Amino acid sequence: MNLERKAQDPLLVCTCNDLYIEDIREAIEFGEDEYREIFAVLEVQPRCGECVCHVNQLVSELS
User: Fold this and answer.
1) What is the CATH number of the domain that holds 30?
2) Alpha carbon 50 to chain centroid distance?
3) First CA to last CA across the chain, in angstroms?
4) How is 3-61 classified by DSSP, letter by letter?
5) Whole-structure pTM value
6) Is the dihedral angle over the CA atoms 4, 25, 32, 62 positive or is it negative?
7) Burial class of 24 by CB neighbour count within 10 A (0 to 12, 13 to 18, 19+)
8) 3-state DSSP call for residue 62?
9) Can you say how many angstroms the Cα of residue 38 is from the centroid of all Cα atoms in its chain?
10) Distance in angstroms (rounded) separating the CA atoms of residues 3 and 26
11) Contact predicate 6/12, CB 8 Å
12) Quick check: 53 and 6 in contact, CB under 8 A?
C-alpha cells in the first residue's frame, strides 16, 4: 500500500490494484459483500491486504 498516494487521493481504496470507491461500489451493487469476491468481480487479486478495513467499511456503508 502506498500510503502517500492514498493520502493524496481520498477516493483511492487500493493502491496495489488502483481501485477507487466507485469500483468497490459497483461490485457491491453487483451483489458482492465479501472482500475476496469484490476483488474477483473486479478481476484483480488482493495483494498486500492493507485495504481490507477500508473495503469492509464501504460494504457496511453501502449495502
Assistant:
1) 1.10.10
2) 10
3) 25
4) HHHHHH-TTEEETTTTEEHHHHHHHHHHT--SHHHHHHHTT----S-TTHHHHHHHHHH
5) 0.89
6) positive
7) buried
8) helix
9) 8
10) 24
11) yes
12) no
Contact 51, 19 (CB under 8 A): yes
pLDDT digits (tens, 9 = 90+) for 3-62: 888 889 999 999 999 999 999 999 999 999 999 999 999 999 999 999 999 999 999 998
Number of domains in the chain: 1
Q: Which domain holds residue 10?
A: 3-62
Residue 30: half-sphere exposure toward Cβ, Cα within 13 Å: 14
